[in-house]
Amino acid sequence: MIRFEGVGKQYPGGNEALRGLDLHIEPGEMVFVTGPSGAGKSTFLRLIPLLERPSRGRVLIDGADLGGLPGHRIPYLRRRVGMIFQDHRLLDDRNVFDNVALPLIIAGRGRDDIGRRVRAALDKVGLLHKEHALPVTLSGGEQQRVGIARAVVTRPPILIADEPTGNLDPALSQEIMQLFEQFNQVGVTTVIASHDLSLIESLGYRRIHLEAGRLAWG
Ligand SMILES: Nc1ncnc2c1ncn2[C@@H]1O[C@H](COP(=O)(O)OP(=O)(O)OP(=O)(O)O)[C@@H](O)[C@H]1O
Question: Of 41, 53, 215, which is best to mutate to test ligand 1, by the most ligand atoms within 8 angstroms of its C-beta?
Fold first, then answer.
């Protein structure tokens, strides 16, 4: 489903974040991306929705080379890849409902459809009762759940998460990982970069371990 072939990424200024990465993630897989700080985990994730482009090699999704994707198809690709960040990036001046609705508004969905989908997504993350709340009134774990609802509201086949539990305590981190497992169990391919090795090991999924921009194992 997600294939990297000889992928290198050099940022302007010379930082070589990835150096010839070859790997394949199967449809419906749940995988963790690990490695020391600066190993290239975020860069690896950012190449999947084309937030970055490779300097060398190819990234393919469902057999299609993203390098050949015309610019006007990028929004469509991004609706198929739900993204979750450590700092969840919610809009502070919009309530929970409006934050989750954002990808649907951008996609031009109708009002009724938006209402239905947003409430279904909030229900899945257990926050239906908070739809009118402003993000600042929520706990860190709840804010991350809103971020997850926003990522899944377009029902993407792929979820990528960059340090989604980085700011959470162990119990909340475990709850967030259980949410990811629930989405994965209904077929969503899930790729999570994390430093939380004890939690990852307790879950037992495949680990892709990067070191200095290379696949060390996995
Ligand atoms: N936008 C950028 N411009 C220049 N260099 C960058 C940029 N983003 C990342 N890098 C560099 O690329 C390398 C890999 O960074 P990346 O963020 O992918 O690593 P990481 O494994 O996610 O690190 P961390 O665990 O600290 O988040 C680092 O040397 C970093 O400084």
Answer: 41
